[in-house]
Amino acid sequence: MKKIMTTTAGNPISDNQNSITAGQRGPVLMQDYQLIEKLAHQNRERIPERVVHANGSAAFGELEITNDISEFTKAKVLQKGEKTKLLLRFSTVAGEAGAADAERDVRGFALKFYTKEGNWDLVGNNTPVFFIRDPQKFPDFIHTQKRHPASNLRSNTAAWDFWSLSPESLHQVTILMSDRGIPKSYRHVNGYGSHTYSLVNDKNERYWVKFHFKTKQGIQTLTNEEAAAIVANDRESNQRDLYENIEESNFPQWDVKIQIMTEEQALNFKFNPFDLTKVWPHSDYPLIDVGVMTLNENPKNYFNEVEQASFSPSNVVPGIGFSPDKMLQARIFSYPDAHRYRVGTHYENLPVNRPLNEVNTYHTAGSMNYEKKEVTNAYYEPNSFGGAVEDSSYAEPDLKIYGDANRYDHNIDNDNYSQVKDLFNLMNESQKEQLFSNIAASMDGVPMEIINRQLAHFEKVTPAYASGVKKALGI
């Protein structure tokens, strides 16, 4: 008898692949209670470490803006000459706390800027794309990267089964299985905001933006064999490298750049510019120099300043905002929800999370509430007792919404292969051979049915991709 998938309350689920959005390009609607249940449940699956990105390292530093981009944004943190303290946390996605650093995995690249207008968090990765484009699939994807509930072992079969059934993952999978899949150190990775965000200038004009952080140390990577040798002797290789280099005043740096797209260009672009599985071609939207980021201070207490550090893309400042990117929209909810559960209701009162400017809210009670502000009659809003009030001058320009609310199939009329082909063609022969070998190694124990399904996706990219993997597999 066919089993019908339901919510925890027993409500039948009609579509577990696509979120309810206002039109084909989003944004996600809060009425999608099935999505919210999935995300909220995932945030509470483990106690107390992070569900994802549990194993990480961090350092404090400074962002210096060296170029004028005021035509795009009024954000004070991005004005020429501005210097802003920051915290950057690197991490692996899948590994638990204490997992080896030198594993084949995406690296988290989470930034907290302590600006004059509040905290701005940019929570990205060392890759410009991700495995999925719809948040409805995120909890399921992460389950494939964690441990099998019976064996408590990582499962190659689960990973490739999901990827082969989710063709939008192919761009990120190709990067993960390439030579860049195991960085030599955190100092030798690029960082990306990954999502599309928005900038608003002093004329209240909106631009879409992507953030890039290019390592000045150069990209350096490890082969599977080199990584295995390192892990055998040092499971904290990336933590050690970052900490020791900063202690020795060998401060790592990144060049900060952006890509800019107008709202009109986004409407007429050849694909959805808010799709997290795709990049904006640099030939169409060239990189614009912004400034330099430097890491120059190690945390004094790892638990207080790294483990309790809480990043969220919901933390924006005037002049920087969101976009209809479906994954970003879900993370705006999911990240703060995870922190309230994992760290505590008032997690942003902690020193590492607290903004530099004055905070005025009407939140009351709750765990970790150690504020010492004098209690007044203005403990609700609106009030007649001089409490903090709203200011409409901070409102963003209207965002036009297109289409009807529905669960749109994100793979209809969506090209999952062209950008992967472009990436494949950029690789030299050595990089391609590493790609084939790494994929073959990661398919150990995977049923042939799943392998063949994935090979069909490689074939759609280019026959050379599929034939290279077949040869490495001995097929």
From TrEMBL:
Domain Catalase core residues, every copy: 6-389
InterPro entries from the UniProt entry: Catalase (IPR018028), Catalase_3 (IPR040333), Catalase_clade1/3 (IPR024711), Catalase_core (IPR011614), Catalase_haem_BS (IPR002226), Catalase_immune_responsive (IPR010582), Catalase_sf (IPR020835)
Domain of life where this protein originates: Bacteria
One Pfam entry name: Catalase-rel
Region ranges (Disordered): 1-22
Reactions catalysed: 2 H2O2 = O2 + 2 H2O
Oxidoreductase found in the keyword field: yes
Keywords assigned: Heme, Hydrogen peroxide, Iron, Metal-binding, Oxidoreductase, Peroxidase
GO cellular component: cytoplasm
Obligatory cofactor(s): heme
Active-site residue numbers: 53, 125
Keyword 4Fe-4S: no
Residues that coordinate or bind heme: 335
The protein's Enzyme Commission number: 1.11.1.6
Enzyme class: oxidoreductase
Molecular function via GO: catalase activity; heme binding; metal ion binding
One annotated GO biological process: hydrogen peroxide catabolic process
Similarity comment: Belongs to the catalase family.
Name of this chain's protein: catalase
